[in-house]
Amino acid sequence: MERQVRYQRESEPGWTRTIVARPGCERLMSCVQCGTCSGTCPLSLYMDFTPRRIIALVREGFRRDVLSSQTIWLCASCYACAAHCPQDIHITDVMFTLKREAIHQRLFPTRFPIPVLAQEFYRMVRRRGRISEFWVVLRLVLRTNPSALFSMARAGVTLMRRGRLSIGRKRVRNIDELHRALSGSREVM
Amino acid sequence: MASQSRPQPPLGYLYFPGCSLKGTGVAYDESLVTLFGLLGLPLEELPDWNCCGATSYMAIGEETAFVLAARNLAIAQRLGALELVAPCSACYLVLRKTVDYSYRYPEVRRQIEEAMARAGLPFPNAVRVRHPLEVLFNDVGEARIAATVKRRWSGGRVACYYGCQAVRPYAEVDDTYGPTRMDELLAAAGIPTIDYPVKTQCCGGSLTGTIATVGKELNCILLKEAERKGAEAIVTICPLCQFNLDVHQAEIRDRTGATFDMPILLLPQILGWVLGGERRALGLHRAISGRRLLAQWLGAPAERDAYA
Amino acid sequence: MPEEESGPRIGVYVCHCGSRIAGTLDVQAVAANAARLPHVVVARDHAHICSDRAIRLLRRDIDERGLDHVVVASCSPLLREHPFRPLLDGRTAGPVTLHVVNLRDHDPSRHDGPAAATTRAEALVGAAVRRALGEMPGRARGPIHPGVLVVGAGIAGIEAALTLADSGQHVYLVERLPTIGGHMAAFEKIFPALDCAACILTPKMAAARAHPNITLWTCSDVTTVDREDGAYRVQVTRRPRYVNEERCTGCLECVEACVYADARFPDKFTLGLGMRKPVYMPFPDAVPNVAVIDRETCIAFAPGGCERPCVAACGERGAVDLAQGEEVVTIRVGAVVLATGFRPFDVSRTPFYGYGMYPNVYTSLEVEHMLNGSGPTGGAIGLRDGHAPRSIAIVHCVGSRDITTNRWCSRVCCMSSLKLAHLLRARTGAEIFNFYIDMRTPGPAFEEFYQALLKEGVHFIRGRVAEVTDWALDPSEEGRLVIRVEDTLLATVRRVPVDMVVLSVGLEPTAEADELARLFGIGRSPDGFFLEPHPKLVGKPGGTDGIFVAGCCEGPKDLNDSIAQAGAAAADALAFVEGAGDPPLSAAGKILRGPRDDRA
Predict the structure, then answer these.
(1) Do B177 and C352 touch (CB under 8 A)?
(2) C-alpha pair distances (Å), C287 with each of A185, B292, C184, C290, C559
(3) How far apart are the first and last CA of chain B?
(4) Does pTM surpass 0.80?
(5) Pairwise CA distance, residues B77 & B121, whole Å
(6) What average pLDDT does the structure give for chain C?
(7) C566 contacts C157 by C-beta, under 8 angstroms
(8) Chain B 53-92, residues with CB within 8 Å of chain A CB atoms
């Protein structure tokens, strides 16, 4: 039988402080654990940890649990939680922050489509300044579930017939200007 | 950065299309331009705009997400524009949030200031971000819409679906919990709408493409409730909501296995139609679901073949 | 400072206040500086100026040095009034004025370092000395006018009025509505003992009406307030009820006879649940038991006119008086007790709970009216279509503990939600779900009450309800209202289908609070309730002599606390008017005079 207990040494209060310091996360400590966020979230039905539990885990510094959860990736950023929260906590911003942490600490499942989509999207924007939906989705499918290509082909053809699928690669003309603007960060591509 | 001559501010509305309006959401681009034309409002596209980042970029780019959006605001400011209209709800929110957070958080402000300086762009502190729904409601108004109607709506009742990011967390486009502006504009145009309590419930956004089962369940609720309350079509203001409800509709089954075949229209499409716009100019030929109904409502018998 | 032969003689005392003042500025320097000022004959610093020893020292100085004015630089006199009172009680050699400078709270430059703080403290004390020079010592406070005005006749106002009247003071009890009794009149039973509310309230209402020392004015508002020496001159506007109070016997024949055969106007008293005619009795036990005619709905006031069968039915008594006009009365009182109660939270501000959208969503106050045996449904609980509910959700914290509506906890709603849970279950046999964030049951026998509910099998789900919806995710939810919530204790999202939803609304300041605060010069807390000078010194609003508050207008509280506070306010008002004690100290910096002439 394995112990289910949590030892205090697993808690990382320093990490909690870095999260609370990010823009939008400052009211995290005011959470009274009422559960309104989970109640109003349209995706909470599917989550391993509800949004409320994520906030509680962040507050207590259990970093690994939080960053390896599916919750943060299932968040659709619909802001229902943030709009409803009686303590005015910008929960959506907390979720964005946690997504970024998970990517940077390489704590996400590598074939889970949502972070992969985010990565492909990010890279294309960094390089070209615009995205082409076709190419982003193609790269996503190839990385996560290549066999889905066949079933998606039909939808692709329908879209193409209606003129809604552009294959051309788009790019910002003054791309140097954009690259100069984006150059100041140490973000990992 | 000095320029030789003072820039002339754009005469009409400066608008930010975003990646979706040039791709799967091209009908939104077409219909918006057509609708504004019918109302006599010039609409100019922001030159050399870049992707706003939406939710995907924001999920990765800690330091650069706001910078990315800010470049668009800076270009608008450099043109002398005081406003930028963003039809896509995600683009609207990212741009709006960038303006807000550049005031509230010194860290974000500093990132944007430094980045704009590197790029030779002004710090965007004077551009107000708007949405077409609010522009139509506040600047045009119901009376003018009613006075410009050319066609009687012969279609069914519609459900006005506002989605999430246009009304949350900022309630400037419409009220967060009980938005009604779309309903009121359509009522002024003679289009009957229904009571639709799930009108601000999320469609799942990009989840429909990544975790299809979840996305489909969310969209099923929206379609089912529209039907249950007596609507035959849904009108939306977000290209991603339109995509999810329209493109994936054929794959959605409710609990009893029933399917849907409901037209999913964009606000400028349906408004543009009753104000006399032409079918192709409004991108109405690009619909995927509900084509049979659309043919009945919009097409003369001769045109019905075009929808087959 | 050389002593002067003539002119006022001032003593200055600078308190260390432990380290609170002494730790941030140089108290000895402040005292030494004061000693150099004109007319200051003694200047000392002292570790604790409020202590017995220090007061004796002050008294000795007053006697031996013949001081006319005493300047004390210390903390806020709001907290420390009692130690200084003996200086004003005539036990000293001659009349003296006392001036308190609040160094502890009023010296903002404490934050700039001791040098700046000291300079500023010296300036504050110097200003106090100069102000004292402008005052004449020994001018007595005049007597306070007898009589007390009590504004608001809910349980707190009634209680205060009765206490004051029993002690011999004359009380003007002014009430905005046509009847007294306030919110308590709606209740059937009260927590925690589930005793009968009317059995407690009705005798008090009757006593208030009958008491020889109470002048009861209903349908009345306070319209102006002026201060005179020792009195408040208050103008009360008595709005017409179109029925003569002296002549009406409450027989209700006018109501019977009304041209409207059916009651068809939503009755405001029962929150629209019941109907009334244009002429009506607010509720059977209304006090005064006098009918009232609503000008808005009575067609006698409309262009077409009316035959006025009500007048005929009243016959020789001639109580119905459609020509009754507004009456403005001016009264003089020595003290005022504000007991204007609360307003329930407006649930249209939380549209996601579906009130008004779905017919079977009610507020807790509506349910109180429905449970009341003399109420609009005669005690029957039913859905809008008349069927009995088989499951009921009670939602706690609607409009409370929420930055987006009201930040504060409304204190009574957990207990009242538990009460409703018990009564609804007893009345309907339905399955009851209480959705709460925290269970707040702090009073006498309250925890026992909660335990009793737990044993009854009421479901307690710890989670703030996110939404009340009507769309079904599961066949069992079809046609019902679904509560979307996270059960935080089970750590799972739940969907609970019910027939009826009860929203436990929070308590807010009344709509009239702004106007009353302006009229009487009362401060407000950030939450909008009437502000007392210190949370522990309840009953005495900041800075206003002779005005006291009681009940929910000061903050949400239950009946126990409202009644207790009403008694305290009455006692304070009595002490003020009868002046048995020393004049109360008001906000820091004022000069107070003593002793009174008649005891010199």
Answers:
(1) yes
(2) 74, 69, 13, 7, 20
(3) 55
(4) yes
(5) 9
(6) 89
(7) yes
(8) 53-64, 67-68, 70-71
Check CB contact under 8 Å for B111 and A177: no
Residues C576-597 as b or e (16 or more Cβ within 10 Å = b)? bbbbeebbbbbebbebbbbbbe
| Range from A142-156, C178-192, C533-547, C565-579 that averages highest in pLDDT | C178-192
The letter for the amino acid at A164 is R
- Identity of residue A124: M
Closest chain A residue to B170, measured at CA: A83
Question: If you count them, how many residues does chain B have?
Answer: 308
- Listed residue (C432, C391, C431, C397) closest to C413, CA to CA: C397
Count Cβ neighbours within 10 Å for each residue of C71-101 and write b for 16 or more, e otherwise: bbbbbbbbbbbebbbbbbebebeebbbbbbb
Q: Which residue has the tokens 């294309």?
A: A124
pLDDT at residue A166, as a whole number: 87
Distance CA B143, CA B71 (A): 37
Q: How confident is the model at residue C83 (pLDDT cuts 50, 70, 90)?
A: low
| Residue-range domains of chain B with CATH | 8-130 (1.20.1050.140), 141-298 (3.40.50.11810)
List CB contacts of C240: < 8 A, sequence separation 6 or more: C219, C324, C325, C326, C327
List, in sequence order, the alpha helices (H) in B12-141.
18-21, 26-38, 54-58, 65-78, 89-104, 106-119, 132-135
The helix (run of H) or strand (run of E) holding residue C552 is none
Place of tokens 């349980």: C155
The partner residue sitting opposite A39, judged by closest CB among C397, C467, C491, is C467
Nearest to C357 among B197, B224, B255 (CB): B197
d(CA C385, CA B33): 50
Integer Cα distance of B228 and B212 in angstroms: 24
pLDDT band at A185 (very low <50, low <70, confident <90, very high): confident
Structure tokens at C318: 């001639």
Element (H, E) at C44: strand C40-46
Mean pLDDT, residues B150-176 taken together: 96
Residues 223-282 of B with CB under 8 A from A: 247
Greatest mean pLDDT range, B207-211, C43-47, C174-178, C475-479:
C174-178
Q: Which residue has the higher pLDDT, C229 or C82?
A: C229
Instruction: Report H helices in chain A.
Output: 13-20, 36-40, 51-59, 63-67, 71-74, 80-84, 91-104, 113-128, 133-144, 148-161, 175-182
Contact C340, C548 (CB under 8 A): no
CB B244 within 8 A of CB B208: yes
Contact C352 A53 (CB under 8 A): no
The chain B residue lying nearest A130, using CA atoms, is B51
pLDDT for C66 equals 85
Query: Which band of pLDDT confidence, cut at 50, 70 and 90, is reported for residue A148?
Result: confident
3-class secondary-structure state, position C468: strand
**Are the C-beta atoms of B260 and B289 separated by less than 8 Å?**
yes
- State the ipTM, two decimals: 0.94
Nearest CA-CA distance, residue A44 and chain B, Å? 11
Task: Report which DSSP code applies to C269.
Answer: G
Which tokens is A164 given? 């809604």
Rounded to the nearest 5 percent, the helix, strand and coil shares of chain B are 50, 10, 45
Give yes or no for B177 touching C (CB within 8 A): yes
Cβ-defined contact of B197 to C470 (cutoff 8 Å): yes
Residue B1, pLDDT > 50, answer no
Domains annotated on chain C, with CATH:
10-141+584-592 (3.40.50), 145-239+326-342+510-578 (3.50.50.60), 253-317 (no CATH), 344-508 (3.50.50.60)
Q: Is B116–A181 a contact, with Cβ atoms under 8 angstroms apart?
A: yes
